[in-house]
Each structure stands twice: as structure tokens, then as C-alpha cells.
Amino acid sequence: MDILQITGSDHRSFMAIIQLLSIFCIICVPMEVMGKNGNASASSPRPSVVNVGALFTINSVIGRAAKPALEAAVDDVNSDSSILPGTKLNLITLDTNCSGFIGTMEALQLVENDVVAAIGPQSSGIAHVISHVVNELHVPLLSFGATDPTLSALQYPYFLRTTQSDYFQMFAIADLVTYYGWREVIAIFVDDDYGRNGISVLGDALAKKRCKISYKAAFTPGASNSAINDLLVGVNLMESRVYVVHVNPDSGLKIFSVAQNLGMVTKGYVWIATDWLPSLLDSIQPVDVNTMNLLQGVVALRHYTPDTDLKKRFMSRWNSLKYKNTTGPAGFNSYALFAYDSVWLAARALDAFFNDGGRVSFSDDPKLHDRNRSSLHLSSLRVFNGGQQYLQTILRMNFTGLSGQIQFDLDKNLVHPAYEVLNIGGTGMRRIGYWSNYSGLSVVAPETLYRKPYNTSTSNQQLYPAIWPGENSETPRGWVFPNNGKPLRIAVPNRVSYKDFVAEDKNPPGVRGYCIDVFEAAINLLPYPVPHTYMLYGDGKRNPVYNELVNGVAQNKYDAAVGDVTIITNRTKIVDFTQPYMESGLVVVAPVKEVKSSPWAFLKPFTVQMWCVTGAFFLFVGAVVWILEHRINHEFRGTPRQQLITICWFSFSTMFFSHRENTASTLGRMVLIIWLFVVLIINSSYTASLTSILTVQQLTSRIEGIDSLISSTEPIGVQEGSFAWNYLIDELNIAESRLVKLQNQDEYFSALKRGPKAGGVAAIVDELPYIELFLSSTNCKFRTVGQEFTKSGWGFAFQRDSPLAVDLSTAILQLSENGDLQKIHNKWLTRTECSMQINEVDDNRLSLSSFWGLFLICGLACFIALTTFFCRVLCQYRKFAMGHGEEGEVGVEEIQPARPRRSLRSASFKDLIGFVDRKETEIKEMLKRKASDSKRQASPSKDGQASSSPA
């Protein structure tokens, strides 16, 4: 009532009071809502202090670099008015002390302080445990040091990695292994989540490059020197000499210290270290000479961070930072940059979170309460209500930090992962290239390549030369024969036939033959010893099945198979073969009989087409010469019958160069010279071919090759144990009932001699080296028919990915180049040549395709001569026929006086023929007489005109 009275008396004062009350409510209500979290403005409820946690091992290589970087980043954020205005970032740091249990307890203690984000940990094992805690409390975990690739799984939605994942580092190592041509590596790693999961990814990356981890050498965290010594002793007995070391920075040098004592950091060894080693060396100031001596020739990867001005300014501040740990050296390494950027990422995202209306508030989790009077105080753990929104804000961040571009891809990994490839030598590290998932290995900085098209092809990979252990500039082979006292188990087929190739021997080494000598010669060329022992395969009563022999190698029953083993597709799928040391292929051998000489053998040198074309050209050239000589040469004139005889006689007499007619015209001589040259070539070729046909033995067989053998129903002989059995059945669809297994050369001879009607075979299908020996032993009574219908070779079989297969291939090529392979061949396989196949006689026949060029030249010469001749004749005829009236008629009457007069236009084709048939001398005489008459007629007419003009 009083208020109404006041309002009524003073309306303006009342309105002022209402406005003041409104402002007071707007200011006071949010302050009550914020509670202990501080004050907020009316437009944006920002707290005055926001807690951010940091969890890592302070007294470690990574921790000593990360701690000053984190604290410097917090100071820089709080002093920057453009980030979180009115809000202070409070960093709460706890030490995990490299313990999973302590780390878990510290994480629980950390989240009791209502942190909006946790930075760390550096340990992948601790990160796995803490990720479950932050998932429950919705607190984003920004790890600058946990590189385990499995932490990127969907199982940990609140885990964000602010450094590069080992997933990319392992693919970089796989590219290195492929670049240098190695096939196998040995992984030496610490047996925890960080080591196991990283090496697992390395195995997958190598598999994509057709390489593999031959052995995984794991040791427990904190292992003693004696345990590491035992581990490396076992590793040194294996064949691979490429070691990938994936351990923690604080204990990694033990590996190289023990390896040096064992003589494993010398020539021939390859050591590849992950990013732990550069991080350790970067943090050692000044450089320790003794440490560097342990690492000479090691290749290592380091996180690549662009040399921006922002990074250079921070590094110039590093020595003046007041936050360094006094308990140990705080050398700079790349993890300091990632830690610094983690704080800025949290701050920038928090600023964007507030700008989007986000509030920092926490609530109790009903699932977290103390059970059975527990003193753990789980009820003090509270859920960050805005955690999901804050997480999405972090994932959207995109800015440039000290380490480069800070932006996440769909898998929550930082974009543009890249590494430096370093080579340790002297007292420092030399960069020999870069690796990025955008371009692979390159000597060009990644940020330059990002502006070019994506290219990771093998041909694009490039690195500068490296210096390997033992000051070796040549790329190590990467493996040696294992020094474990176990000789190579080599299976040798125990043959009962064709023992010149391979057979049992009573003298050491227990086997002999061509194949054994080739293998021993190749082994002796290797730059390292290869102890081996031969093991006979087969019972010695029948030839072994070679497919089963190769399967034994694939199943690790033998290390290799040496002998007459054919390289075929199915076998290459399960074993690796060397370079072929002998060519081979399936051929058909069949009985043959000699062809009796034919009375028409003289026609065989030329094909029918060749005979026809040659005869036609004889007549054609004779006709051309007659045309060219008929007007000027009396030997080519006479009655039609005489002229026809002359043409035929002249044509065929040129075959023997016995033509009696002389050529008088220039064109005729030109044609005759070219034709005589053609006749010379034809005569010589005919003589050579006929001589070959009459002197070489001619053979014939009912079987003409594999096609005729398939179409028949007669039995086929096949060597027992040969791949030809399966090939004929599976590839050529020949019924198995038609195939007959044969043991040795005697059975070959008997089966072919008897033939299919007497219980033998129509033909034998076998490999060419066997057939050559068989034909030689039978004095060439049988012959091969058709051509080789498969192309293959013999090689030595090794287990998949065996480096011996590659080295022996090189040795076999060397044997071939220096002639030793041929010498071994001559030693064991000297034989009588039976190279004449039954279908080679037909190949001696000469066809038109061999002479069409000569005929073409002769035809062109005849055409040119005839064209020139007729042009000249037509010009002469035109001079006779070009006049009108009496002048023209006189010329025609002189040619044909018996015919009545006719005009020029009525001249017939017969007139032209008659003109052509006259002798050249008569034509010239007529032309002279005509010219004289024309002059006399012109003189009187001029005199008449002169006398009549005065009148």
C-alpha cells in the first residue's frame, strides 16, 4: 500500500528502483548458480579459474623436457589477453613415477580437483588405465607422449593424442626396410603395451611390403644387463641382421651397450631405432662421447616439426626457462613441443567452448559411491557435465603450434604425420631424409611436398647415403647364415634313371651329378660360409614324386631342394626358386622312319606358288624384251610363228644364260640385266635347297606333335615322378588311362619300339634335358616331333622369403657369365646331337616370301621400260597423224597403201599397230621425206605471193 502511494506520488522514482532490482537479480543469480567455481559475466558465464591436470613421470627423459614446457605454456596462456579473458588456467601436476598402479591412483586424485582436461600421460600402459577413468568422468585426456597405436580405438573416446601415433612410425620403418632391399627384421622391444602394440603394427606394415618380422625379442621393463645379454646372444644366432629397437628412452642404451660388448655393432649389422633414441640424444647436453660411440651407424626416426619462427623463438627461450627440474638434465626434445601445444590446445578449445555457451559444472555419478565403508572416497569423483561438448570442440580445433599444424583427422590422429630419418655418426646425428604418409621417403621437406600431388610410389622413394656400423658405406646385405650350429638341410631326389643329373654316391658328400656340381659351385661363390648336409629323398627303387619333395620344403621338413626340380606355377606358390640354371620344356618323342627318295624330288626346293610366279615372270620378261627389240632388232622379227618361238626360247634360255639373241635397245638391255640378276639368285637358291634336300636324311612319323597326340587315343609314356603326369591330365585334359609310367631309358626304348599295338606307347612326353640324353643313348633312332609346348627351367627350391634364393640366383648368373656353367654341363652331359626334327625338311622349301622383293624390282623395271617405249612410239605416230588433208593422208597412205584414203580422225587401231610393227629405220626415213616435202611446198607459195603483190 505504501509502495502504491509512493508510486503514485513519484512515478519516476519507482521506475528507477525497479531497474536497479532487475540489474541486481541478473548479477546475483548467476553467482549463486556458479557456487564454488567462481564468478561469471552476464553475457558469458566464464569462471575465474579453470583447473587443468598434468600427469607424467617427471624424472624421465620425456618428463624433464615436458615439465618446463607445460608450465611455460600455462604462463603464456594466462598472459595472453586474447585467450580466456577473465579466466586463469591453473595447472595441477602429479608424478606417475613410471608405475601403472601409482599412475592410476594419481589420476583418481587428479580428477578430484574438478579438472576440465588432463594432459598426459607419457606412458602408453598408464594411458590405457587412465582412459577408462576419463571415459567415465567425461574429461578429455590430451597425451603428448603415449604413442601406442591401439589408444586410437573407439574404446577410448576421450583419449586424444597430441603427438604422432606409432602406427605411422612403423610404416616409416617398413618403407626403410623395403627401400634398402631387406626382407626380414628382428624386433627388439620392451614387453609392455607400448612395445607389443607398436611391433604388432610393424608386422602388419612389413606384410604389406612382402617382408616380415622373423623373430620378436621381448624383454621385461627394467630388465638387467644379464637378461639383455642372454636375449641378444640368441638373436645373434639367427640369420637376420636387421634389428628394430622399440624401447623406452630411459633404458634403451642398455641394448646398445650389451650389443657392443657382443660385437654386434660392426660391419654387416643394421640397427634401426624408433623415436626414443633421438629424444634421448637431444636431451643430453653436452654430448656424451661414450654414448655416441655405442651408436655409430644407427639409423633412427625423429618426429618432424617444421622450423617455423614460433618454434625458433621458443627454443631460444628454452635455456632461460625457470621451471626446469634440478634433479637431472632438462635437455630439449620434440616432446617438449607436443606438451606445450597440448596446453594451448586445451586453452583454445576452452575459449571456444565458453564462446559457444558452455559451462564448467560437475555432478555426482550415482555409480560412484563408497561401498562397505571404503576409504577410497569414490564419491568425491564427479562427472564433467560439459565434457562431451568440450571434446567435440577440441576435435574441431585447427591452429599452428610449435610442432606444426594442430588438427585432428577422422581417426583422432594429428594430420600430416612426418619423421626425420637420421644417421648417427661421429658425435652427432645427420639427417638423410624425411618420411611422411603423403610422399614416403624423400630428401625434400614434407611441407614442400604437401603442395604437390600425392605420390608414395616405389620409384619416388629417395634418401641420402648412410654410413652403417663398422664405418661401412655399402648397404649391408641384412642377413647371414645362422650361426647356431645347424647345417642347411638339403633334400636331393634319389633317382633311379638319368643319374647323370643327380644320384646317390658312396663318397662324401653322399650325392653327385650335374645338379650337385652346379649347386656347390654357386655356394662357393657366396661371400659367407653355408654349412649344409644332403638328405636323399626317395627309396631308390623308383623316382620320387617331385611335388611331394617341394611340399616337404614348404612344410619346413627341409631347408632346400637341390636337383632336377622344374620351376612351375604351382610350386612357386609355396616355395622360392633360384634363377634357372638349365632350360627345360616338355617335348614329344616318337618313332620315325626314313622317307625314300622321290622321282619328283627336284620340284621340292620351291613351293607351288614360287614355281608359278617364276614361270610367269620368264614369259613376261621375254614378251617385254621382244616388244622393246622388235622394231630395231631383226632377230626379233619374222612371221608370227617365228616371233612366238623367239619369245619362248629367249625367255627360258635366260635361265641358263644361253640366249643367242642380242639386245640392241637401251631399254631392252636394262630389263635383261635386271632379269639376269634375278635369275642368278633364283638358280643359286634352287641349287642350295635341292642339295640340302637330297643329302639330308628325311624322316617321317605318324605323330606330328602334341596336337595330333591329344587327338589320338593311343597310350602316352610319361617319366615316373615328373610333373608332366599332372600337366597332361589337368592342363591338356588327356585321360589318365592313356598315360603309362616309365622308369628309365630302357623302358623308354622298349615302349617306343613295341608301339601301341604290341603293348608299348605311341610317343613319350618328357622334359627336353632327359629326352636329349635318351636320344643320344639310342643313337638317334627316335626323334622329337613338333616343338616344345611348355617353357620352363630347373632351379633350386628354398623356403619362402629365404635370402639364400636371391644370393644363389646371383651366383648362378655369375657361373653362366664366366663359362663355368657350360664347363659343368660338358663334364656330365656330353652326348651325340640328335637335333634334326622330322618337320625340318619342309622348312627347306623356298617360298615366294623370300623373293618377292626381287620380282618387284624386275616388274618395276619392265613397267618403266614399256612406258618409255610406248611414249616414244606415240610421239612418232602423232607426227604422222597430226596433219590435215593431203598432208595427213599421205602419211597414212605411206603406212598402209592398199587401204582407201581416210581422214586423221578415222585412223583405226590397226593403223597404230601397223605403225608400231614397221622397222625403226623405215619410220625415220619416212619422217625425213615428209620434212623435205613440207619445205618444197612452202617455197612455191612464197614465190607466188611475191610476184602477185606488185600487180
From TrEMBL:
Chief location of this protein?
membrane
Keywords from the UniProt entry: Disulfide bond, Glycoprotein, Ion channel, Ion transport, Ligand-gated ion channel, Membrane, Receptor, Signal, Transmembrane, Transmembrane helix, Transport
Q: According to its record, how does it sit in the membrane? A: Multi-pass membrane protein
How is this protein annotated for GO cellular component?
A: plasma membrane
Q: Where is this region: Disordered?
A: 926-951
Q: Which GO terms describe its biological process?
A: cellular response to oxygen-containing compound; response to wounding; signal transduction
> What terms describe the molecular function in GO for this protein?
ligand-gated monoatomic ion channel activity; signaling receptor activity
The record's annotation in Pfam families points to: ANF_receptor, Lig_chan, Lig_chan-Glu_bd
Ranges annotated as biased composition (Polar residues): 937-951
Compartment(s) where it occurs, according to its Swiss-Prot or TrEMBL record: Membrane
So which domain of life are we looking at? Eukaryota
Q: Does the keyword Signal apply?
A: yes
So where does this one cross the membrane?
12-31, 606-628, 670-694, 851-875
**Biased composition regions of type Basic and acidic residues, renumbered to the chain:** 926-936
Per its UniProt record, what SMART domains does this chain match? PBPe
Q: Which cysteines are joined by disulfide bonds?
A: C780-C834
Ionotropic glutamate receptor C-terminal domain boundaries = 489-831
Q: Which family does it belong to?
A: Belongs to the glutamate-gated ion channel (TC 1.A.10.1) family.
Task: Describe the task this protein carries out.
Answer: Glutamate-gated receptor that probably acts as non-selective cation channel.
Name this polypeptide is given: Glutamate receptor
What species is given as this protein's source?
A: Manihot esculenta (Cassava)
